[in-house]
Every structure is written in C-alpha cells, then in structure tokens.
Amino acid sequence: MEKPTLEIQLQTLPNQPGVYQYYDAEGTIIYVGKAKNLKKRVSSYFTKTHDNGKTRVLVKKIVTIKHIVVDTETDALLLENNLIKKYQPKYNVMLKDDKSYPWICIKNERFPRVFSTRRVFKDGSDYFGPYTSMKTVHTLLDLIKGLYSLRNCNYDLSENKIETGKYKVCLEYHLGNCKGACEGFETENEYHENIIAIKEILKGNFKDSLSQFKTQMKQYAEDMHFEEAQKIKEKIEVLENYQAKSTIVNPKISNVDVFSIISDESYGYVNFLQLSYGSIIRSHTLEIKKKLDETDLELLELAITEIRQRFHSNSKEIYVPFKVDLGKDIKVTIPQLGDKKHILDLSLRNAKYYRMERFKQDKIVDPDRHANRIMAQMKTDLRLHEEPRHIECFDNSNIQGTHPVAACVVFKNGKPSKKDYRHFNIKTVVGPDDFASMEEVVYRRYKRMMDEEQALPQLIIIDGGKGQLSSALKSLDALNLRGKIAIIGIAKRLEELFYPNDPIPLYLDKKSETLKIIQQLRNEAHRFGVEHHRNKRSKTALNTELETIPGIGKKTVVDLLKHFKSAKRVANAKLDELEPVVGVSRAEKIYNYYHTK
C-alpha cells in the first residue's frame, strides 16, 4: 500500500494522549514529543507560523509521522523520556542526559527501609513509580513517615547481630520515629504488617489516609492555624491526583517483545512493543495483506518472525494474546492479568488505532473503495445474486392500534439516503394488524415506483420474522416482482435472518459489518416510524382539543395554528393577541374556554 501524504497522516491522527515521532526522507527519527491530544498537538506544527528558525527547519524536513497511543499524559511524559534517551533525535534538546525519574523503593531486607531512588536494581526489592514529580514522592514519604514508625538507618539487622546486642537505639527511637528493631524492641512480624500497609498506599489504596488528612486539615482550620491547614490541603491534592502504576516503565518486566493482532476480511495488523530494562523503547505496526483466508494465528506467527528479524530482537520472552509456536528457544507468555496484561492491552490498542487510521486514509484517497468492499462482503454474506447498492427497510409503528403508520428507509452504497425515506399512513387496515399493514405499504411503495419508472432496490429488509416476510411476499407476488428483488426478514430477539421458502434462519457473526449495516437499517426504520407516529398522535390530540371549543371549526383551528405555531401558545394567548387572528367573537370563546378551564 502506498504511503499516505503528510496531509492525510495529519487528518487521521487520533485525539488521544501519546507520543509522536517525526521522521525525515531518509527514515531517520528527528524529533520526539508528547501530547495530551495527538491530533491537536501535531497539527499545530503545520498550522502555526513559527518564530523559531530551528522549528521552521524541522517542519520542512518532516516526511513521516508515527505515534504511540498511551493511557494518560503522565505515561506520555515517561515514554517520551525513554525514546529521546534511546534515539537521541537531532531536534530534541531536553532529556539527553542520564537522569531518570524517581522511584520509591521498599528494600529487600529483614526490616525493609522505604526511600526514594533514581536507580533500579534487580535485587528483589519492590519499586513503585516512576514519578514525574518529586513533590509526589516527598508527599508520599511524608505520609508514610507520619503514619508508620520505620527505621532509616542502614544497619544489617540480622537475627544474630540483634541477639548479640551489636546495635544501640539512636535519637530517632527517642523521638518516636522508630520502634527500635535494632535492639529487638519490635518484632519482624509487627514491622512487616506496616510494610504491607505501606505497599497498599503506594498502589493507590489510601482512603483511610486521605480521610485522616482531611480531618487534620479541618482541625487546623478551626484552630485558626491556616498555614498548616494549607500544607495539609496541598498533600491531599497531590495524593488525589497520584497514579500508582505506569505501563510505560515497569522494572518487573525486563527485556521482552509484545505482540498483538487485529484483523478484518482483507488485512491483518500486528503491533510490536519492544521493552528494554523495563522501558518501552519501540512501537511498530505491520500491515499484512491476506491472500487466502489466513487465521490470526498464522498471521501472527509470520509477523513475529519478520518483525524480530527486521529490528534484530534477541529477547528470550514474548507476550502474545494466544499460544504461538516459535520453537524451543523463545518463552511464550499469554498474560491474563496484572502488569503483563496491561502492556499487552496497550499493544492491542495501538493496533486498533493503526487500523482505524488506515481506513480513514483509504476513505480520503479512494472514497469508493470502502463502499465497494462492504457491498462485495454483503453480497457474499447474504447469498445475493448482485451487490445490494440500493437497500430498503420497512417497519410498522402503532401503539395499542392507534394511528397505525409505517416507515421505509433507504440506504445507497451502505449509507443512509434520507431524501428517499418515506412515511406511510395505513389506509386499508382497521386495528393493529402488522401483517396486513406490511402487505399494504410494500404494495403501495413498489406499485408507485413501477408506475413512475423509478429504479427498484436490489434488497428489501422487513423488520420482523416469518409472518411479516410472508405478508411482504404477497405484495411482491401481486406486482410480479417475486425473484426480481431479494427480500429477507430480520427477527429482533436473536438477530435471525429469514429467507422466503427457507424454514432455517441465517445467523451472521455478531461482529460482521453486514449485520451492523442491517441493524443500522432496522434501527433507522424504527426511529423514523416512531417519530412519524408521535407527530401524528400529537397533532391529532392538539387539534382535537381546539375543535372541542364551542363555535370553533376546522378553518379557525388552522388559522390559529398557522399564527401561533402550537396549541399550547393558543391556550396561553391574551385576548388582544387572539382578536386580530380570529375576530372578537371567536377570540372571546377561546379565551374564556381556557381561562375558565
């Protein structure tokens, strides 16, 4: 498939948070940026006049735009940091140093310390973060320190050394900040209960802590200590906005490749996320044209081999949505929950956005291509002799048999053609009889089309089961159209499709585009019919009330509604407003009727 122009790439960007990457004509990455809304941010480069000469040069060099969609703006910031450090783009001046974002570490020790760090080691310790704000880290550590007594010394508190009395308690113990584990004043179990509670806080479960802070803040405010109350308020705001985990950087997931797939009738889209030392450093989506009816498993196995060779990946583990066979050297993981599942979901999300953008680009470049594909698919799915370029759908609307009406909606090339929609008032049927009503409207619709020599549809859809379909067929027989127009009925409960003279219904895949278009037709016919039914009922009710006023006839009612637009306005009108419309005598009758009432 041809590479879309820059203009088309801009038009199809998603309105989602993420990271964008600009490439030049040689395919070299020249700039990485983050955005709360990718479409708005990237478009601004090409719509604004830039004062900065370097930015103008950058914009001129951009040939391709790639992007990675993420969940939040914070994730976008972290991913931008990873990519800039990895690729060192020419026009990025920030984040090229080795500085990394801070983490909170719960050390793998007998009495674990809790502290902030910028370095992550694989030593069995628990790391939470990374955090994009040091203020958040300080607030969390202050909260933990205020709630729990923990040691901050770096002694090796082995059972042996404590029993031999190697250490003595320090000032922190006398200040009440530590319970003296170094002298055996606190047991290991008691200490670990605190650590479990701290881990919950760092995961974001701190309702009790927030409640405690809010009580404290109110107390300070009541005691007129407003500075202290303000400090507590700032802590509450930080905690309420705190995000415990990032999918973008996760030390638990080391060097792995993540693959996901989404496919349709013609193409498969495989997304690849590469993680190195717990950080996402690459995202790439491969588009595969189907030759036969290949399964997702076949496409994914082919794509994994191709992508790993192209990007020289030597990772020993991959995450995939289902089992694939890649030989004994590669560990295949199918995540079900937790951090690994989150990263797989992120990959799938990027594959879906890539597919959506491709569809949008195809529609811009070749508007007929999408319609042609849908029509060909519908012809195959519905076992038709020709493509259903012109489809009509009928629906009856009556409530307890009053004001029976019917609707006919028309789709051309898979899209609504609203100028061709038609309403029908049932004329020959008395009472609620859906079958007879369907027979009448189908006959009237196609009798008129034949009389006026209009082009007949290729497909008729009847909203209802076998009964309504049989009624419609009677009309086609009467007009000698049986066999000339394909006709099916759709039953609401199980979305069954009924064909003439076939007792066994057809069930389409719930995800198929053919079924979605049929459902859209059915829903549109129902909406259009109910709208007409309500209008008719409302007008009848309003007109009937005006006509019940003694001395007021139909002509006067028409004059009143033409002037006042609604019966409600007539009822609320003043006498001097009514007189110019209907004269003094009738104005008094109307005014007295409503105001006496």
What does this molecule look like?
This protein has 597 residues and is an alpha+beta fold. The protein is built from 20 helices and 19 strands. Strands 12, 13, 14, 15, 16, 17, 18 and 19 form an eight-stranded mixed beta sheet that branches. Strands 9-8-7-10-11 form a five-stranded mixed beta sheet. A hairpin with a 3-residue loop joins strand 7 and strand 8. Helix 9 runs antiparallel to helix 10, helix 14 (434-451) runs parallel beside helix 15 and helix 19 (575-582) packs across helix 20. The longest helix has 35 residues, at 513-547. The protein is extended and about 110 Å long. The termini are far apart. 28% of the residues are buried. The model has no long low-confidence stretch (mean pLDDT 79). Residues 15-93 form the GIY-YIG domain. Belongs to the UvrC family.
In brief:
InterPro entries: GIY-YIG_endonuc, GIY-YIG_endonuc_sf, GIY-YIG_UvrC_Cho, RuvA_2-like, UVR_dom, UVR_dom_sf, UvrABC_protein_C, UvrC. By secondary structure, the chain is of the alpha+beta class. The protein has 20 helices and 19 strands.
Question: Which keywords apply here?
Answer:
alpha+beta, eight-stranded mixed β-sheet, 45% helix, extended, five-stranded mixed β-sheet, 19 strands, 20 helices, 597 residues
Record the SSE blueprint.
Layout (H helix, E strand, L loop, with lengths): L5 H6 L6 E6 L5 E7 L2 H10 L5 H9 L2 E6 L3 H15 L15 E4 L7 E4 L8 E3 L5 H14 L11 H5 L7 H4 L13 H15 L4 H16 L3 H15 L15 E8 L3 E10 L2 E11 L6 H15 L6 E3 L11 E3 L4 H28 L1 H15 L8 E10 L2 E11 L2 E2 L5 E4 L8 H18 L7 E5 L2 H13 L7 E6 L4 E4 L2 E5 L6 H35 L6 H11 L2 H6 L2 H8 L1 H13 L1
Parallel strand pairs: 7-10, 10-11, 12-16, 16-17
Antiparallel strand pairs: 1-2, 1-3, 4-5, 4-6, 7-8, 8-9, 12-13, 13-14, 13-15, 17-18, 18-19
